Amino acid sequence: MSDSINGLGKPGGPLPSRPASAPASGNGPAPSTAAGGDSVNLTDTARQLQELTRVAASAESVDPERVAAVRQALADGQYAIDSRQVAERLLQFDN
Questions:
Q1: Domain for residue 60, yes or no?
Q2: In a domain, 15, yes or no
Q3: How far, in Å, are 15, 44, 61 from residue 1 at the CA level?
Q4: Which of 79, 55, 60 is nearest to 68 (CA)?
Q5: What whole-number distance in Å separates Cα of residue 69 and Cα of residue 29?
Q6: CB 52 within 8 A of CB 46
Q7: Taking Cα atoms as reference points, which of 42, 43, 44, 23 lies closest to residue 33?
Q8: What are phi and psi of 42, to 5 degrees?
Q9: What is the pTM of this model?
Q10: Domain span at residue 50?
């Protein structure tokens, strides 16, 4: 199936492209060439996002020692809840 708009998609028709010197965004692309000659440009922002995603995925989200301490305090009846502190922190989410 081919696009009839401006001859795009037709055999021998023009290919939609952007010059290699024109980045997708203004964050300074870093070119990468695949074995087949195709290239991909990642912006600095995209590379930072990839790194942050990798770090977040490898981070431990639960502190098992803290969980054990809270469980023990609950079991012993020693866990005190400061309602004022809870309210203040809930209000921080609205800002």
A1: yes
A2: no
A3: 15, 36, 48
A4: 79
A5: 48
A6: no
A7: 42
A8: -105, 130
A9: 0.32
A10: 24-94
Domain count, the chain: 1
Contacts of 60 (CB under 8 A, 6+ apart): none
Structure-block tokens of residue 51: 């790194």
Q: 13: which 2 tokens?
A: 């028709």
Average pLDDT over residues 16-29: 52
Report the pLDDT averaged over residues 19-32.
Answer: 52
CA distances from 16 to 5, 8, 21, 42, 58 (A): 11, 7, 15, 19, 39
- If one counts every other C-beta atom within 10 angstroms of the C-beta of residue 43, the result is 16
Whether 50 is covered by a domain: the verdict is: yes
Structure tokens at 28: 């300074």
At 53, is the pLDDT very low, low, confident or very high (cuts 50, 70, 90)?
very high
Q: Give the C-alpha separation, 20 to 61, whole Å.
A: 41
